[in-house]
């Protein structure tokens, strides 16, 4: 089979296509013939991290058909699933944990499945971690990205009265407005009236601006990006709070909530209440270009690879 691997650290240029033996699923695992894989910013950053063991085949959000299964899972062969693969996803065949692989309804296409299995869950989970109430105001940073563009739409579904989409480039303003944002701002502009909830996927200076943008009793939910030290006494003085959200502890610690959200997302997508934006679909051999798009923050929605 073909796969994309990196054997040294660096930028997108270290990604190389190579031939490899067919992997075999072990206990608790499924082998999926990959139809599409979503490229994510956390995975893109791995090529530059010296703590990643080499060689490494990047992971990602996968949709495809189960072609083999580990012991006791034979009944899952033939299922069309969306799955979270923590490595080995940039390939024609990927081994995925069975507990993170979920049947996809016929009404959900590959783009929808890839977009919602993780990105939709992060967006909805982060908004719920921020306890968004009907009538409140929500700011979403990274609003044109794979998670952010879904969070803009889901904030409205949860009853937000005002949704502000914060982006790094004014050229993305039309995209986020078309998704339902009331306002589109860049990170170096004023963000308007203080917000009840800010969902941040950028970190750094943007995260600091997000804290300043909170109203009294406001909540910041950080789901990605490098954090900054937070003055707890400053939070206390304004009754603000900061919450972290990540998929792995959510899936492992709240499996029932994850399952409910999955069905909710499938339903919203099938009823065309939720759009999964696809910026570009590339063949597996062009994984380096997919990483460049993500690193340059050019994408409006998801970037997909198709073996």
TrEMBL record:
<protein>
    <submittedName>
        <fullName>Oxidoreductase</fullName>
    </submittedName>
</protein>
<dbReference type="GO" id="GO:0003960">
    <property type="term" value="F:quinone reductase (NADPH) activity"/>
</dbReference>
<dbReference type="GO" id="GO:0005829">
    <property type="term" value="C:cytosol"/>
</dbReference>
<keyword id="KW-0560">Oxidoreductase</keyword>
<dbReference type="InterPro" id="IPR013154">
    <property type="entry name" value="ADH-like_N"/>
</dbReference>
<dbReference type="InterPro" id="IPR013149">
    <property type="entry name" value="ADH-like_C"/>
</dbReference>
<dbReference type="GO" id="GO:0035925">
    <property type="term" value="F:mRNA 3'-UTR AU-rich region binding"/>
</dbReference>
<dbReference type="Pfam" id="PF00107">
    <property type="entry name" value="ADH_zinc_N"/>
</dbReference>
<dbReference type="GO" id="GO:0070402">
    <property type="term" value="F:NADPH binding"/>
</dbReference>
<feature type="domain" description="Enoyl reductase (ER)">
    <location>
        <begin position="10"/>
        <end position="305"/>
    </location>
</feature>
<keyword id="KW-0521">NADP</keyword>
<dbReference type="Pfam" id="PF08240">
    <property type="entry name" value="ADH_N"/>
</dbReference>
<dbReference type="InterPro" id="IPR036291">
    <property type="entry name" value="NAD(P)-bd_dom_sf"/>
</dbReference>
<dbReference type="InterPro" id="IPR020843">
    <property type="entry name" value="ER"/>
</dbReference>
<dbReference type="InterPro" id="IPR011032">
    <property type="entry name" value="GroES-like_sf"/>
</dbReference>
